[in-house]
Amino acid sequence: MDVMTNISLKQYTTMKLGGETRYMATADSAGDVVSLYRNARKENLPIFVLGGGSNVITHDEVFEGIVLLNKIKGFEVISETDETTDVKIGAGEVWDEVVEKAIGLGLQGIEAMSGIPGTAGAAPVQNVGAYGQEIADTLISLEAYDSKTDTIVTIYADECDFSYRNSIFRDKEKGRYCILNITLRLNKAEPKPPYYASLQRYIDENDIREVNLSVIRVAVLNIRSEKLPDPAELPSAGSFFKNALVEKWKLEELQREYSDIPNYAMSDGRYKIPTGWLIDKAGLRGYRSHGMRVYEKNALVLVNDSATGYDDLAAIREEIVQIVFDKFGIKIEQEPLELSR
Ligand code: EPU
């Protein structure tokens, strides 16, 4: 296991911003993870686990700790019934390759999450989701190194406190666990409607008669390429803001002024309002400031054209948050995690 020193984090995050980490180490196995944490504890160094870096924002000052690159591999069918197949996946697997393999095996449950950048181990952290599916729907358990008890533990889905783009891993137990592998329960049945609205629209517009897993994958990849910049070409972190969750009275108040406001009822009685719509309606689509830009094709995305540091990002973020608040009375929140001491 190599430990490197003074590594720039720019190349390790898709937003391509930020400073150096004092140490960086690659973990290929659970054993690597355990020994890294034990050594870090002796030296009193914090550890930040990084997957693909597609949902992480780094600060400019040196991170006085260890960035752990999780490269634990594996894709293994561990059990099956007539209807379902359980697959155990190493946390360091590239998420989209996992989706591709599952589709290749005829397994349904994650195909709408095609094209999401990042690793399998990062997926539960913010309960990734797209086009009507989220990881909480298929994850049954995961194994993680628990830095509090210095043991490897199994955590079941109902212990993860999954909600919209959230879990214990980025909320109340932030920094405690390093996810080693995840187990998904996928279905042998073919996908069935109803499909997510934009997916259905694509199916109709392209006159697709027979929908199967591969058709959904291609559709999602095409829809995404229209709305989300390819991180290899334009630095970004996907959706930069979470969608807004508001009470019913607030939605009704907004509807009096904006009758066309898109909204989705949540199971907890609140309503989700697309933040992309709020930013767009506030006139900020294509807005440029501090070397950053609100993406023309999707106002929820911030693109880094020539920003030189975290402060540039923070500056445009504060401008957008303030303008949206002044117009709608909603305080929008950043979605990507931050790597800082
Ligand atoms: N909209 C606008 N203007 C914009 C952008 C969006 O009016 O500039 C409107 C759209 O017309 C639509 C609504 O906002 O009515 C929602 O847009 P969309 O369906 O594209 O999805 P989203 O809510 O913006 C979420 C996820 C994405 C995920 C898509 C598809 C979050 C923060 N984002 O975006 O996830 O791919 O749904 O399911 O939940 C990510 O998390 O990084 C991400 C890309």
From TrEMBL:
Its cofactor is FAD. Belongs to the MurB family. Its main location: cytoplasm. Transmembrane segments: none annotated. PROSITE patterns: FAD_PCMH. This is UDP-N-acetylenolpyruvoylglucosamine reductase. Pathway: Cell wall biogenesis; peptidoglycan biosynthesis. It comes from Candidatus Minimicrobia vallesae. It catalyses: UDP-N-acetyl-alpha-D-muramate + NADP(+) = UDP-N-acetyl-3-O-(1-carboxyvinyl)-alpha-D-glucosamine + NADPH + H(+).
